[in-house]
């Protein structure tokens, strides 16, 4: 797969402003490669390169990193076992889980998110494959930059914070971000006049946790309307995420299949590595999978799903843009609004990264900007006919 990558300009930083990164991986090759990449960035530095999770736990207080890139499979103490111990010592530590693309590792990565990890990244099967390595580098650097910067702006706790409560199985609450919430003067549009016939959702970093929260509360919507979701995720991960969405929502959920009819009562998730578009086949709306190039550095991407849905449902579309890096969904959201549909964005205080929803807000296309826990009740009301 050919991916065109461009570097993101970053401001020159002083040493005290740099994001401090701890790399934890039992492979000396991976540790060296990641450390070189980070060392080449002006706004971050490697403060430790460690072989095991046990080393990371024992040295965390001395090192005091902002971000830990944590391998899953390591001797002495693996990543999923080290994670709660690291967060017990430093609750505001940003942990990015790194793993190869196996079903087991994908399951562990999603479990890690529920235990407090901030994000995950799939490692290439071979560092000799240039495109895979460059994609990994681009994604990792962006995750470190955005998550690390937010952690430095909004620290949750000191190093001496108490350990996680036993049985902790939900994402850590996000720190209030009053200084960075959507400005009161941001333009709000009226909700579309046409009753919505479909719910489209786009998400990226922090999305799995947000999606679980959302689908658990929108049963009345799912029962009467189809729900289509694009979450930036690789293959295997999306398969497992669909299974989790089904369990959480207690409704059928699966990866979209090329050519299948779109029906109410179903959740369709874009499969990793392919864009999920919508097409009209006779009287039916159908899934159309697209193996074209990445859009906004992503495959699947939100914009293709949003834009293609207009040909099927015109202005009868309700779309939601959840937490995520970048601006994917904003252009498609503009098209939906121009067609007469509506966009709701997650607010900054409850977003892991306020890139995607922030871009939509700043573009002036949102009918509402809401904390995560208020989005589901709003959707239920809108689909019941309240578009105030």
From TrEMBL:
Annotated positions of the 4-aspartylphosphate modification: 71
Catalytically driven reaction(s): [protein]-L-glutamate 5-O-methyl ester + H2O = L-glutamyl-[protein] + methanol + H(+); L-glutaminyl-[protein] + H2O = L-glutamyl-[protein] + NH4(+)
UniProt PTM comment: Phosphorylated by CheA. Phosphorylation of the N-terminal regulatory domain activates the methylesterase activity.
Comment block on domains: Contains a C-terminal catalytic domain, and an N-terminal region which modulates catalytic activity.
Record EC number: 3.1.1.61, 3.5.1.44
Keyword Hydrolase: yes
Molecular function (Gene Ontology), one example: protein-glutamate methylesterase activity
InterPro entries on file: CheB-like (IPR008248), CheB_C (IPR035909), CheY-like_superfamily (IPR011006), Sig_transdc_resp-reg_Me-estase (IPR000673), Sig_transdc_resp-reg_receiver (IPR001789)
Keywords noted in UniProt: Chemotaxis, Cytoplasm, Hydrolase, Phosphoprotein
Entries under Pfam families matching the protein: CheB_methylest, Response_reg
Ranges for domain CheB-type methylesterase: 193-386
Entry annotation: catalytic residues: 204, 232, 328
Protein name: Protein-glutamate methylesterase/protein-glutamine glutaminase
Compartments reported by the entry: Cytoplasm
Originating species: Bradyrhizobium brasilense
Response regulatory domain span: 20-138
Enzyme's top EC category: hydrolase
Family: Belongs to the CheB family.
Region (Disordered): 151-182
The protein's role, per its UniProt record: Involved in chemotaxis. Part of a chemotaxis signal transduction system that modulates chemotaxis in response to various stimuli. Catalyzes the demethylation of specific methylglutamate residues introduced into the chemoreceptors (methyl-accepting chemotaxis proteins or MCP) by CheR. Also mediates the irreversible deamidation of specific glutamine residues to glutamic acid.
């Amino acid at each position: 797969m050919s991916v065109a990558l461009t570097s993101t300009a970053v401001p020159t930083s002083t040493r005290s402003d740099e994001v401090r990164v701890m790399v934890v991986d039992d492979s000396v090759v991976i540790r060296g490669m990641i450390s070189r990449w980070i060392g080449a960035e002006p706004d971050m530095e490697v403060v430790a390169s460690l072989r095991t999770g046990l080393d990371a736990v024992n040295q965390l207080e001395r090192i005091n990193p902002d971000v830990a890139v944590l391998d899953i499979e390591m001797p002495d103490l693996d990543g999923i076992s080290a994670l709660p111990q690291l967060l017990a010592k430093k609750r505001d530590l940003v942990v990015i889980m790194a793993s190869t693309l196996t079903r087991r590792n994908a399951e562990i990565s999603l479990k890690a998110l529920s235990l407090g990890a901030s994000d995950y990244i799939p490692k290439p099967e071979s560092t000799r494959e240039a495109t895979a390595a460059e994609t990994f580098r681009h994604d990792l650097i962006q995750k470190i930059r955005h998550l690390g910067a937010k952690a430095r702006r909004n620290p949750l706790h000191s190093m001496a914070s108490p350990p996680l409560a036993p049985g902790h199985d939900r994402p850590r609450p996000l720190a209030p971000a009053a200084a960075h919430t959507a400005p009161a003067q941001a333009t709000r549009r009226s909700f579309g006049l046409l009753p919505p016939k479909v719910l489209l959702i786009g998400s990226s970093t922090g999305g799995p946790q947000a999606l679980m929260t959302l689908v658990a509360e929108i049963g009345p919507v799912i029962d009467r309307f189809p729900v289509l979701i694009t979450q930036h995720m690789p293959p295997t991960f999306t398969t497992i995420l669909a299974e989790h969405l089904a369990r959480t929502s207690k409704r059928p959920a699966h990866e979209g299949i090329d050519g299948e009819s779109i029906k109410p009562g179903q959740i369709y998730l874009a499969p990793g590595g392919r864009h999920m578009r919508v097409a009209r086949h006779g009287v039916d709306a159908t899934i159309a999978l697209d193996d074209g190039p990445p859009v906004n550095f992503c495959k699947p991407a939100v914009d293709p799903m949003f834009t293609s849905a207009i040909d099927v449902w015109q202005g009868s579309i309700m779309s939601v843009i959840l937490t995520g890096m970048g601006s994917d969904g904003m252009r498609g959201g503009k098209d939906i609004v121009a067609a007469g549909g509506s966009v709701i964005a997650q607010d900054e205080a409850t977003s892991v990264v306020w890139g995607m929803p922030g871009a939509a807000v700043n573009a002036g296309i949102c009918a509402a900007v809401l904390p995560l826990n208020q989005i589901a009740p709003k959707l239920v009301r809108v689909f019941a006919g309240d578009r105030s």
